[in-house]
Design brief:
Pfam families: SRP9-21 (PF05486). One of its GO terms (molecular function) is 7S RNA binding. It is a single chain. This protein is an alpha+beta fold. The protein has a domain of 68 residues: Signal recognition particle alu RNA binding heterodimer, srp9/1, CATH 3.30.720. The chain is built from three helices and four strands, in the order βαβββαα. It has a four-stranded mixed β-sheet with strand order 1-4-3-2, covered by helices on one side. A hairpin with a 4-residue loop joins β2 and β3. It is elongated. The protein starts with a strand and ends in a 9-residue tail after the last helix.
Amino acid sequence: MVTVKSWKEYEASARKDPKRFRYCIKFRASKQDLVVKATNDDICYKYKTQSASILNRFESLNKTLMYAMANAPIPQPVAQPATTTQQHTDTATTTASSKKKKNKKRK
């Protein structure tokens, strides 16, 4: 088993042949360790980390591998229009300003 030190090296080994690539994920909550073991039937790779930023990289690699294993194209993210947040803030300010205080009669 080869222990890989850099994430780029591990990711490159995973992308060589995604059809033959298999991996196992283990998370130890007590030690806050993420261990990823992978094989392509020739070499077994192991990557171990405690960094939270690697989780984002692993999530993107996992998504890419799933699409590659299914032989499907990776969908492009759809951009959300920025006008929706402006509309919500505009309506909130207009409703607050349109309400008038009622004068109560004092006795």
